[in-house]
């Protein structure tokens, strides 16, 4: 079964993920040489995000909602959407989405499809993150700085994060977009253990969630 077919297009309850803790994980292989120098390499071109959904639980009703969601996803079997409250926009968290937020590419006179992406830049270096799960209704698109209309000038595949123009994009024309997005994830555990007495005493269950590649 492909990863796309093994995915449910449903978002984990956003009010529960609001209190979660998590963020990007990088994998580095470091070898210390005899002279004390290091050789460093990374097998991952993209980071992978991890979260703990248990920290967002505030009541036994929240626990029941979590368990229902876990059962409906068959535990780790099916992926789902996750809102990362610290990073869910194409712009800064305090800003509003605009169609000029992110550069998706330039036209070559033939291409009509452009994948959504977001840049993370610091100190003269930039990393482009592929965005596979944009939020429906949030996508804004501009061609050569001119806003375009969905359903007339372009369409989007909200399950793959691909933008398709009605006509080939003219050579050299910049394609830009702004959007909100979810992270494709799955549960990273086969079991959820909850003790009512412990929960009421402030002991929250651990519910790890991990990003998946699509």
Descriptive keywords:
214 residues, seven-stranded mixed β-sheet, four-stranded antiparallel β-sheet, 3 helices, mainly beta
Write structural notes for this entry.
The chain has helices spanning 14-17, 60-72, 196-200, and strands at 7-11, 21-25, 29-32, 38-41, 48-52, 79-82, 102-106, 113-115, 117-122, 125-130, 133-134, 140-143, 146-148, 154-157, 162-165, 174-178, 181-187, 208-211. It has 214 residues and is mainly beta. It folds into two domains: 1-86 and 184-214; 89-179, no CATH class. The strands form five sheets. Strands 1, 2, 5, 6, 11, 17 and 18 form a seven-stranded mixed β-sheet that branches. It has a four-stranded antiparallel β-sheet with strand order 7-16-12-13, with no helix packed on it. A three-stranded antiparallel β-sheet has the order 8-15-14, with no helix packed on it. It is globular and about 65 Å long. It starts with 6 loop residues before the first strand and ends with a strand.
SS elements, strand count? 18
Strand content: 35-45%
Largest beta-sheet characterization: 7 strands, mixed
Order of helices and strands: EHEEEEHEEEEEEEEEEEEHE
Averaged pLDDT, please? 93
What structural category characterises the helix and strand content? mainly beta
> What is the straight-line distance between the termini?
12 Å
How many structural domains can be distinguished in the coordinates? 2
Q: Could you list the spans in which at least 5 consecutive residues all have pLDDT below 50?
A: none
How many individual helices?
Answer: 3
Short overview:
The chain has 214 residues and is mainly β.
